[in-house]
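Notes from the 1:1 (GR / supervisor)

We went over the backlog. Supervisor wanted to see one worked example end to end before approving the batch request, so GR pasted a single chain during the call. The sequence is below; no edits were made to it. Supervisor asked that the structure be written out right there so they could see what the output format looks like.
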Amino acid sequence: MLEALAAITFLAIALMAFAANSVSLTRNQKSADSTGVAHALGQQKLEQLRSTPLGAPAVNPGNYADAQNPLKADGTTGGPFSRTWTVSANDTPAWGLRTVTVTVSWTDSKAHSTRLAAYVRCSKIPC
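Structure output shown during the call:
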């Protein structure tokens, strides 16, 4: 009887450790999914800005945010993601270029953010 009680206790402890590990793995998977979505939203905005015509107002120096923040993974409204971007001053880092930095932020159990950057051409050199 004592051996059976010891075996059940050992089995219970092992199952509790397995359950705790499962919760941790699920949380890590959710965090990885959110990071992937944030990178995709940032890349989407960078590609959109890089494909605008030279000299378009969308790539004038300044700070911008999506009008429909917060965003879902597919870019529609109502999700946990907030996307902003900054267009650097003229001729930064070199003549005829501006740096666009997109920041995507979200909060789950804690606050996260990711940044992506690319260059866009000005309509003339120097800008």
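Supervisor's comment: Residues 68 and 76 are 7 Å apart (CA to CA).
Batch request approved.
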